[in-house]
Amino acid sequence: MSGYYQRQSLELQTHETARHSSAAPTLHRTNTTSSQRRRQQRLSQHRQESWFRHSMPPAISRDFESLEYLTQETGNGLDEQLAASLGGTLPGQSHTSIHLNSANSNLGFIDSDTSNTPITPTSSSVAGTVSSCQAAGPGPGPAPVEKSARRKSRNRKDSKGSILSNALAARGLRMTTSFLRNKRKEYEDEEEFPSSVGFDTDDGEKRIIAINSPQPTKYCNNRITTAKYNCLCFLPSFLFEQFRRYSNCFFLLIALLQQIPDVSPTGRYTTLVPLIFILSVSAIKEIIEDVKRHRADNEINHRLIERLVNGQWTTVRWSALTVGDIIKVVNDSFFPADLILLSSSEPQAMCFIETANLDGETNLKIRQGVPATAKLLETKDLQQLEGRIECELPNRLLYEFNGVLKEYGKPAVSLGNDQILQRGAMLRNTAWIFGIVVYSGHETKLMKNSTSAPLKRSRVDKLTNTQILMLFMILIALCITSGLCNLFWTREHAKTAWYLGIGDFVSMSLGFNLLTFFILYNNLIPISLQVTLELVRFLQAMFINYDIEMYHAESNMPASARTSNLNEELGLVKYIFSDKTGTLTRNIMIFKKCSIAKQIYQPERTPEESALVQNILRRHETASDIEEFLVLLAVCHTVIPERKEDGSIIYHAASPDERALVDGARQFGYIFDTRTPEYVEINALGERKRYDILNVLEFTSTRKRMSVIVRTPEGGIKIFCKGADSVIYERLATRNQDYREATLQHLEEFASEGLRTLCLAVADIEQDVYEEWSQTYHKASTSLQYRERKVEDAANLIEINLRLLGATAIEDRLQDGVPETIAALLEAGIYIWVLTGDKQETAINIGYSCKLITHSMDIIILNEESLDATRDVIHRHYGEFKSTTANDANVALVIDGKTLKYALSCDLRGDFQELCIICRVVICCRVSPIQKAEVVEMVTQNTKAVTLAIGDGANDVAMIQKANVGIGISGVEGLQAACASDYSIAQFRYLQRLLLVHGAWNYTRISKLILYSFYKNVCLYVIELWFALYSGWSGQILFERWTIGLYNVLFTAMPPFAIGLFEKFCTAETMLKYPQLYKPSQSAKLFNVKVFWIWIFNALLHSVFLFWLPMAAYQSEAIWSDGKTSDYLLLGNMVYTYVIVTVCLKAGLITNSWTWLTHVAIWGSIVLWFTFVLIYSHFWPSLKFASNFAGMDIQLLSTPIFWLGLFLVPITSLLIDVICKLVHNTVFKTLTEAVREQEITRNDPSQVLNESRSS
């Protein structure tokens, strides 16, 4: 029954649509002022469009507005797609008739002068049509057949084609001026009325700026503040930041509990003073840094700028500017706010800017004012400018700006990224510019982007926090146990030990006793650990920054640690995700070859020597195609030429590819030498030619192409288009494509050589069609809502019916040392994935060149056209691997971006990930930046392994921030990736030293530092628990209270620093020569839950020896020859001395690399304690302080029992450690220890490593 109602509904909608389709042109031609009639028309069109789109399957309807996406998804014509989606086959199958041409006209895709062609789905298919709209995924795809890269390229010409061109050729349809008018009208309607998604354009969604008149609303001033604090908020803000750390909150709680009378056994200030000291150090650091920020802010806010006020130029501070001000900026000056460029000293309102502060790119960029304001060169002209600017609200998108200039009595003018001058950029090579402020202060794009990078924490930190929580639970258990024991002991001895005064309320209170023991045992958690870690990590980062081996002299670029929180994470990396261009390669492009009219040409020493120029001069039959090819290379770009004094020309380009293409044209005698906003001039083999630039359709990562519409010297209009073969071939006309097959073969040859390829095509445009399209494009470019989509849609309309000219091949050579680095990283057990936007063939060839793929590897190539086909092939390959026992197959997986989209879908993601993890190498081709991030996130979240992403461009920022560790290459594409990264290096080869040396060392150092810090605290403070057995569980302390507080911050502070800074198990040369030594750190063998609790048990064992051995020696109490005795504090100082000696010797026992600083730290700590005893013992009575320590030096150093214990107790405590170490290094020797032994004996470790491989 439900199917019947669905069929009836579809029939009604179909007939209504046909009626509206025929009536819509009449309504468009009617010139009426009736708002009611206009609204009815729009509602009618909206209903028609809504039904037409909802009658399609979701896969088509979802992307119906984007022609480009539609062309990528299918090779059929538009009508065929819709007919197939509705279940139609051939006319004559009656039930429901849909006039597609009329519908297409109203939808703004094609127009026809022919009669409507009905496509009639069968009755049985209509219900399926509606139900298919509700399907959750694409329909069934082709059979799952694994295809090679060569086969894919060969079949591309048959499987893909331009929707419009196929439709036009097949049905005689053509783009007409009426269609373009309808499209333009659609844009107008979207601006005036709510869109189909319900977005209502109003003043609240855009900024309106009045020119030379009061502003309609008050905007943000131009004063900026980057400082964190001021005099009023410093103390509360600083304390809030500090006490967000759990450790500080814990010690603050202890300090507060110590203030309760008769509760603290250690005094009132033994925790408070160290805590205040640590907070004071942090506060001083914050104050110094914030004062620097305040000074920098004041220097910037007090800079001077000229502002137009009442027809006069007045010098004001930057902070005094506001939105709507017209200002003058001179050469080599920073822009004080985000400005709209009005005019400049250069012709056509051009200017050059440097955006290094914004994106790190040092190459100059061109900006140009619109023609409507280019002639405002005088003050009076600026004063007479009246109108308003409408633009988008402030946002953080550096490369996007949408606005409209509406002068009174003049047509609206589009404002885009070419007219915006952003705060932080600098004016270069231009005497002056006039601009109007659109965003000021903290609303500028620079300040909007001043946000901190996502916080990343290392695995070691996370594990440490977990173990701290476990220790805290043990501390609570010890407190409860000790409190109960105190309660029982007090009840039992209250009468017999009446002289102790233990019958009072405090002594009998379990609550008070719990607080006492909580304070007594709190030092099980080291108070100095966080400070020690921060300082050590900071100095480790300095080691990275000043490593001369990672300094690139050619670019004067050292390595840079932008964060120190992840130093040890560098030693745990399991997966590396790398970009290709600029990361593995140099990103220095060289024009190598080109394919024109079935022939391959190469540049020679001079243009005349090349066969290409000879064919032009001899007027070969392909001469016209060759000339048009070279003109396209010399004209279709955004390169800026700079002529030097010696007459040479330097090209400034936004990308190395564009520079290489223009240089390639120059090598063949077509020299581009002049650019203005309106035209370009070239020297074509000695003949000057001028091409008027009508429109530039810029390259984007979505479009993957760039087009320029020009007026030729002959007066005709042409569109020159260059881009990836996958998008150019889709837009070719079906006729007169003589070079299609040959060019495809040449593309495969170029790609197999590792060359980057582009296809070049051209089309002639009729004058009337261009004029209509120009108005459509203008309307799209002046739209504030969905401008990017509309502009792309309008560009799709003109980039059709192209004629293929040929292809280019550009070489991007590998960086020095890339093959050796990749081989070393693979040997270290690291999996390397390459995520690139290049062609599949190019990526595979680069994989061979850099030794990522070896000839012994099997290669799995996934190039599927549908979700079902992708599912089948992934399940098939995964099943084959699953049936084998190998966990790590010697296989390389290559997948393209389209198949990756299906593989990352919800139901396939898990199986795809398992397949990838089994493979040794994974290469993803033709992937977008968001797909890179998705792949990294998938592996990071599901494998729980440490991932590292490395790239050099803005398109790599997303994956760099998703990975556990992000590495930026400071390369040709600027510093955007480096600025978003955790560490930056100049060359890929430095990654080997960063991971295998610094990473492994830092992991070892931090691991030992943390373990040792917990060891030494447990070793001392658990002794208080053993002493409680003899003190009636009273909470009496064994040690002097200030020695307890100084234990971490003075007497045992230096050994952890020595371990954290200078420990290493092998030299850097050995680590680089034998990458297998990275595996112990990679597998986290030095710091895990098991190792942590072994160290805690070891500390407990040592504390037993350190307490009971002196206790046994002190049993007779008379420890001097004259029979004199002392109190418990002498025992405490003896034990304290033995503890310091033992923990310092323990530090030496775990140290592999001894430097003079290590000696100072270990032996100096012991000497420091004895010096303290000698000085502190004489404070009283000169200072009214430490009365119970008076004369302690004489008592302690005069008894032979102390000196005997100083020799025996530490040795006895560490004897088990020494035995275990000897057994381990003899019987259970690891590879690292074996190599270290070979280093010490100055033997070659190769034999040991070869034995390890064979075993």
UniProtKB/TrEMBL annotation:
Give the CC-aspect GO terms. plasma membrane; trans-Golgi network
Q: Where is this region: Disordered?
A: 14-54, 114-161
Enzyme class, top EC level, equals translocase
Residues that, per the record, bind ATP: 579-581, 658, 699, 722, 756, 836-838, 926, 932, 955-956
Query: What's any GO biological process attached to this entry?
Result: phospholipid translocation
CDD domains from the entry? P-type_ATPase_APLT_Dnf-like
| Chain segments annotated as transmembrane | 468-489, 496-521, 1045-1066, 1087-1108, 1128-1148, 1160-1180, 1200-1220
- Provide the binding site for Mg(2+): 579, 581, 952, 956
Q: How does it sit in the membrane?
A: Multi-pass membrane protein
Compartments where located: Cell membrane; Golgi apparatus; Membrane
Reaction catalysed by this chain? a 1,2-diacyl-sn-glycero-3-phospho-L-serine(out) + ATP + H2O = a 1,2-diacyl-sn-glycero-3-phospho-L-serine(in) + ADP + phosphate + H(+); ATP + H2O + phospholipidSide 1 = ADP + phosphate + phospholipidSide 2
Q: Where is the P-type ATPase N-terminal domain?
A: 211-272
Specify the P-type ATPase C-terminal domain's residue ranges. Answer: 978-1229
- Which of UniProt's keywords are assigned here? ATP-binding, Cell membrane, Golgi apparatus, Magnesium, Membrane, Metal-binding, Nucleotide-binding, Phosphoprotein, Translocase, Transmembrane, Transmembrane helix
Q: Where is the active site?
A: 579 (4-aspartylphosphate intermediate)
Q: State the Gene Ontology terms under molecular function.
A: ATP binding; ATP hydrolysis activity; magnesium ion binding; phosphatidylserine floppase activity
Cofactor or coenzyme needed: Mg(2+)
The catalytic activity of this protein is classed by the Enzyme Commission as 7.6.2.1
Please name the InterPro entries in this protein's record.
ATPase_P-typ_cyto_dom_N, ATPase_P-typ_P_site, ATPase_P-typ_TM_dom_sf, ATPase_P-typ_transduc_dom_A_sf, HAD-like_sf, HAD_sf, P-type_ATPase_IV, P-type_ATPase_N
Q: Which PANTHER family match?
A: PHOSPHOLIPID-TRANSPORTING ATPASE (PTHR24092:SF150), PROBABLE PHOSPHOLIPID-TRANSPORTING ATPASE (PTHR24092)
Q: What is the name of the protein in this document?
A: Phospholipid-transporting ATPase
Organism name: Drosophila busckii
